[in-house]
Design brief:
Strand order of the largest sheet: 1-2-3-4
Number of domains: 1
Distance between the termini: 40 Å
Largest sheet: 4 strands, parallel
Order of helices and strands: EHHHEHEHEHEEEHH
Strand content: 15-25%
Structural class: alpha/beta
CATH architecture: Alpha-Beta Barrel
CATH class: Alpha Beta
Length: 166
């Protein structure tokens, strides 16, 4: 993590309404419409202070609640490098993959992180470094990383279809 990247730390059971208020479900659908409302009821400073490359650390059951795509889409759109949590709600986990948002389940990293610690994430080796401590996590499948690198499942699928037609 460089000096300008920030770790946003949250607790357990952060639901999709905390990530993106449900009252905007039918009025905000594009990333530019979603971004200003991210975490507005949980952390009003998030939407104005988040920077590309920032990481979210969270407790258990992150993303519980509804199946709306705006929370994952918005976090991806503002450039969240990864969400590292103790656990995820399954429906959010799938939505995040679909949107190209990287989720890492690693309770040890969440427990080891203290405010101000330097965090480095190495997806190739499956290591999170928190200051001098190295914590392993299962490396992510290449296909998940490709989905992320292509901006989500739809662009990834389109690229695969185009390649298969050549």
């Amino acid at each position: 993590m460089s000096n300008q990247d920030k770790i946003w730390k949250y607790g357990d059971d952060i639901n999709t309404d905390m990530l993106f208020p449900g009252k905007y479900t039918y009025t905000c659908s594009t990333p530019d419409e979603i971004k200003p409302h991210l975490l507005e009821d949980l952390d009003p400073s998030f939407a104005t202070e988040v920077k590309s490359g920032d990481i979210i650390m969270a407790g258990k059951n992150f993303g519980c609640g509804s199946s709306r795509e705006q929370p994952a889409l918005g976090l991806r759109a503002v450039g969240i490098k990864a969400v590292i949590a103790r656990s995820y709600a399954r429906i959010f986990y799938r939505a995040a993959i679909n949107q190209g948002l990287l989720l890492i389940e690693c309770p040890e990293a969440v427990d080891a992180y203290i405010d101000g610690a330097e965090v480095n994430l190495d997806l190739t080796t499956g290591i999170i470094r928190i200051d001098d401590k190295e914590i392993e996590f299962p490396t992510l499948p290449a296909e998940i990383l490709e989905i992320r690198d292509n901006g989500g499942l739809l662009p990834y699928t389109r690229k695969k279809l185009e390649a298969s037609r050549k």
